[in-house]
Amino acid sequence: MRIIFLFLLSFISIDSFSQNKELKKELGRIYSNLDSADNYLKEAQRKLKSKADSGIYFYFVAEKFNLQGKNMEAKRAFSKSIEFIDPSLNPELISLAYIRLTRIDQAAGQFDLALNHAQDGIDFSLVSADSNNLAYHLLDIAVIHHDMEDYSKGVEYGKRAIEILDKYSKANPIYRAFALNSIAINFDDWSKPDSALFYHFKIIDDMENLDSMRVIFTFNNIGNTLIKQERYDEAKKWIEIALKLNQKDGYPAYGLATNYTNLANIAYNLGNYSGARSLMDSAAYYVALSGSTEKKRDYLFEEYRFHKAKGDLPKAMGFLEQYSALKDTIFQEERLMAMSEMEARYEVEQKERALAESRAALAENELLVENRNNQLLMLLVFLLLSLGIGFFIYYRQKTKNRHLRQEAKLQAIYAEQETQKRLKTQRDEIALDLHDNIGSQLTFIVSSLNNLKFVELSKEKMAQKIDQISGFTVETVNELRDTIWAMNKDSMTIEDLRGRVSNLIAKAKESCPDTDFELIIDENVDAGHRLNSLEGVNFYRIIQEALNNSIKYAQASKVQIQIIQGMDKVRLVVKDNGSGISETNPFGNGLGTMKTRASRIGRSMKVNTAPDKGTEIMID
Fold this sequence. Notes:
By secondary structure, the chain is mainly alpha-helical. It is 75% helix and 6% strand. It has a domain at 494-619: 2-Layer Sandwich (Heat Shock Protein 90). Helix 9 packs antiparallel against helix 10 (193-205).
């Protein structure tokens, strides 16, 4: 009973997973077509079947607001999605929701709230055993500490993230780049540029595994570190690469604010104050667009330094006051206490987790034994079912194969009988032809020889008569050979027929050297095409009769034999330029024989002729 329940549970899980996957695919279109987001969400809302589906729906509602810059609405929707998403089906969406919440509060300067979300993300990643997202939440904390100017803590958390990813065989390369960057920017603002560059260039070294559009920040941050070393020309090259990539990536405000702030810094340090002013104005525009407290702080401090470099101390002091006021809102005492509590919470949870893991080890071993027994039982049931199904399939296939073999034997016997029947019919037809033609010719020879006994002829006429009988005998022998040749073959190819007709034309040329004989075989005719022996011998006889009539009666100077490929069979055409057929022309005597031969092989014969315009005989 328990096994059946497990099977049913697995089928339900597969169905839910399929529905979830389809829903995510449909709503994922929001990223490429934000203008149609409301339509996609309305479509998906009609398909919601479960609480888990609703969780996915709320997640993508939040993503829509996030992409539109509506941070409060996005926060509410992300929080709601975490309540509804099934962690067994979509743990990655829960982790991403925590990451989004962290980033929204971090950008707004609400660092205590951002740290809370990051810690919640860590707790969830530990439960779901997700090393990639665990590292991501840690690197987020590293970046928050950077924004709070607690650089030693920032480096510490960044290195924790790298340590987790380096031990994980399926570490996400882009997450590793983000972790390296979090360490580098902390070293950079900690006035340790060599360490910062070391970690920045680790990202560059791994660029073959990364999409450059995902690590644009690296090019800018290398430039930022070089500025602090007063290597302005080198810095400008790196930052301009980042600027071009950001512009190509659809002008993200956060990145462009950073780029223009840094380029303004280079400009006024090189004495180009007018250029620096223009760049500062661009920076101010993108800072406001980004809504980032960190970027606003950096911009105000850069304005202070710019005006100080120009010697405009009143303006410089004004920006310094704004900068200090913003810092004060970030580092309120209550926030610092809350973040200290967060640190303590993290340390306590780490210790509790270690203790829980040791206690869980025993329970896990017991569960492992129970699971192994269940698996063995399921495996045994599966093997028995497989054997039963396999035997059924084998027996059925064996029976089917036996029936197929019997049927194949019967078909072979039937085909053999049909072949023998067809060959017998063909041989009977050839035998009839042999009897009708060869028999009558031999009778004529015998009769002619007997007549010589009773007729007194001069030596010259006797010799002439014997020559005629001899010629007729040779012709009969040749016809007999042709008939035997046809009888000895079940079938013949067009190439075989060509050879016999070519021999016939060669003999005709010996007798009539002034006549032009031509054999044309259409290029569409397959030389290997087979005619049965009856077709072959009758085609040959028709050609022989037509050729003989053209020479003897039509006095043709040109005779053409054509073998043409028709729609579904081979056609024969014999034409000459002789005197044509008239009522008194003895050539007409052979037409009946040719027509009879054509009908024997199921063909029709057509004759086109006119006096002195030649004759065309077509066998279709």
